[in-house]
What does this fold into?
Amino acid sequence: MNAAALLLAALIAEAALGYPRRWPHPVQAAGALIAGCERRWNRGGPTRQRLAGVALLLALVTLAAALGWAVQHVAGEGWGLVAVVLVATTGLAQRSLHDHVAAVLAPLATGDLPAARRAVAMIVGRDTAALDEAGIATAAIESLAESFCDGVVSPAFWLLIAGLPGLFVAKAINTADSMVGHRTPRLVRFGWACARADDVVNWLPARLSGALICVAGRGGWRTMVRDAGRHASPNGGWPEAAMAGALGRRLGGAVSYDGEPARRAILGDGPTPSVADLRRALRVYRRACIGLWIATGAVAWAL
It folds into this structure.
């Protein structure tokens, strides 16, 4: 089985099976390790903090690559590839991302804003207590678009390029960035290396994600190219601007984090999203996932 065929099998299996909710996810173990290292290593002056962050990154990459190689080596060929496919599904998030956003849509569609706020708080870091329908829909759509890159396209890309070691390394870096890659006084130096590594790992997948969203949404190219660079992240703007263009809606704008206001660039044109636009965004997302399957299948056939 070539790498693309293995990836296609993993994508289909993950979409069909998801991940058992009662089982602890491997990312939780990585998160516990990162949190422990941050508590113990993030001390001293600026130089020591940066060096400690580099050490964390090197340790994560080494452990993740070694674990991926070990699983792949032990599984071998033949029926062992079934185990590789099943393990690979733990690094993909098509099903769980869809389910989390659908959990926001359900109460929002019935006008239950408190329940919708609780659901969207599970997938975004901004303050949600005062969000109205447009604010909830905007937050969910932005998370859906950005996580399509982080949780689907990027791990798929690195699984294709470097097998389970590539997948595990990409997930470890993404997890570290989400935990320590923040510009807060405590983490701005310690998390610098992990944040920059995440930018590198997601550079091409972010642009592929934007393209897949534009194809799935039958438009949005102009908005993506025009507005992607306005985003604070060098990568996050591509899938988010693509989704804004595909929907013909405006994303971004002012939000708050822990009570502190944060200004963000506006992506796209038109009115702010509604519950109907969130429903449309989920349809675009499903088509984009299928587009990824088709592209992967084409590569598998060519190889």
Notes: The beta strands are 251-252, 255-257, 260-262, 266-267. Residues 224 and 241 are 5 Å apart (CA to CA). DSSP finds eleven helices and four strands in the chain.
